[in-house]
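Onboarding guide, step 5: your first structure request.
Type a short instruction followed by the sequence, for example:

Predict the 3D structure of this protein.
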Amino acid sequence: MKARAQGRPGPSLGQPYRTLVKLLGKDRIRADATSAISRYSARISFAALLAAVPLVPWLFLPGPLGGIGDLIVLVGLLALSRFFLAIQALDVGTSFGGLGSSREMWMGALAEPVFLLVIFAFGGPAGSTQAGVIAARGIALGAAYASPPLLLALVAYVLLLLVETGRLPVDNPATHLELTMIHEALVLEASGRDLALVAWGEGIKFTLLVGLLAALALPWGIPTVWTVPLLAAGAILLVAKLVGADLLVGHLETRVAKWRLFRVADLLALAAVLAFGSLALTYVIGGGA
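The system replies with structure tokens like these:
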């Protein structure tokens, strides 16, 4: 989508999968200075992202894990994944690895509290931080769920999504310039199956956060009864929501330029203010209940 918006044909939809298959068939090459941390970091990071997938209600309610685990656990799993990628980059001992890991952890330290605020903005009216409960409330309210507090929380989440997934204007996933790259600096020394797991984890994280956005802000269409027609309709709606979110992110990325690193704090501050505003409006509209 980004390539077409920029006037280029772009790769085919199957190219990332072909790249993954090629990388999974290659051996890992590690620097002599690395320790056992580099051997397992990519696997632990990938496993943490994979463990977060069942916490999101994708095709039916209640979610796959029912009442086990909530969005605070999801934030913790994302932080765990980020931590091990940063540790892997530091373990190599290169200047680029140190640069990328310090920037990544700095952004994580700012983004994680804002993520919790956004979760509370969505979950406050529902009285829960479980995605399934929040989505069920939205389905029960119908059109009344689309309220000013929801809009503020939605915008805050989109801003947070750009930071968490390293998209423009925060980071450019296609860059290799040392002055601008953040995530790319973490994986410069990764190769073979480690690089495949990191790239695969990137895709899982993006899809996970977009799917969570669809469940929290647009829960309509998620089946609450297990029937084949309803599940099929829910699957079609899920794909439509994911494609719509991809279009939104792709449009934003082709319309803005890369920001300076320290302006990322301004973006997260705006997301925090919007989340606070959502909570305040919820309290006012609810009459202080």
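Each response can be followed by summary notes, for example: The chain has one domain: 32-285.
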